[in-house]
């Protein structure tokens, strides 16, 4: 069945001498695999339609749960193009790889809007790290591991947030505190904004450096402890943070 889909290329794999297998998150079908025949050839009409981070409309021979075939299409935006900033490339790589991993566990079509909106905001110059963390929070719902931020993770009682630890899954109250990272008094409100914000409506980002660092550390530890996701692109972010 030949059809047009709106999608973003998450990753590519070389196939044969000149072809590529593309992993594309589509608005219509979620994650699908598409073969782009001859796409590695400079003379190919499909070459510019087969690049990572490309957002476009793709004309394909669609085969449900099988390998579809790219026939043509229109490139709408190549995220990160024209930028020599390695940070932008690193964060886009991370978000696209994380999205691919999440889709393998939950191929929900609504993830398309989260990904597109996040890449749009990074492309527009908003904080890469904050956008990354917002995406990470939203994906926890799809993975079924959303943290309970209303109780102490040691005594399991409702509390005022005093400290936080990603390895134990959330906040610790003052009575249970040992050596976890203390948080500012407004930190729970900060986390709620991360969880509930509509990415498409973000115009500017105002967050203290301290809060940003605590959120990033918490999410890194939380994913490492409670998910089975391991990302190659995380290594580049670690290097850039040093």
What this model shows, in words?
The protein has 242 residues and is of the alpha+beta class. The chain folds into two domains: 2-78, OB fold (Dihydrolipoamide Acetyltransferase, E2P); 86-241, Recombination protein O, C-terminal domain (de novo design (two linked rop proteins)), CATH 1.20.1440.120. It is 35% helix and 23% strand. It has six helices and eight strands; from the N terminus they run βββββαααβββααα. It has helices at 86-105, 111-123, 128-143, 187-196, 209-226, 234-241, and strands at residues 2-15, 19-26, 30-36, 54-61, 68-78, 163-165, 170-172, 181-182. The strands form two sheets. The protein has a five-stranded mixed barrel. Strand 2 (19-26) and strand 3 form a beta hairpin. Helix 1 runs parallel beside helix 3, helix 1 packs antiparallel against helix 6 and helix 2 packs antiparallel against helix 3 (128-143). The N and C termini lie far apart (50 Å).
């Amino acid at each position: 069945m030949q059809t047009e889909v709106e999608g973003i290329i998450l990753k590519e794999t070389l196939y044969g001498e000149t072809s590529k297998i593309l992993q594309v998150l589509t608005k219509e079908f979620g994650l699908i695999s598409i073969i782009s025949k001859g796409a590695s050839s400079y003379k190919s009409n499909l070459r510019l339609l087969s690049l990572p981070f490309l957002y476009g409309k793709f004309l394909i021979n669609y085969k449900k749960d099988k390998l579809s075939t790219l026939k043509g299409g229109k490139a709408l935006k190549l995220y990160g193009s024209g930028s020599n900033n390695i940070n932008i490339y690193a964060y886009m790589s991370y978000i696209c790889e994380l999205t691919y991993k999440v889709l393998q566990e939950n191929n929900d079509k609504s993830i398309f809007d989260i990904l597109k909106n996040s890449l749009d905001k990074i492309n527009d110059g908003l904080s890469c790290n904050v956008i990354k963390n917002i995406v990470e929070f939203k994906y926890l719902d799809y993975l079924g591991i959303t943290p309970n931020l209303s109780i102490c993770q040691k005594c399991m009682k409702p509390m005022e947030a005093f400290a936080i630890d990603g390895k134990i899954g959330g906040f610790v109250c003052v009575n249970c505190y040992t050596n976890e990272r203390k948080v500012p008094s407004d930190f729970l409100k900060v986390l709620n904004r991360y969880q509930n914000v509509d990415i498409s409506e973000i115009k500017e980002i105002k967050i203290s450096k301290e809060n940003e660092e605590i959120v990033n550390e918490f999410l890194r530890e939380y994913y490492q402890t409670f998910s089975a996701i391991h990302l190659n692109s995380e290594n580049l972010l670690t290097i850039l943070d040093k």
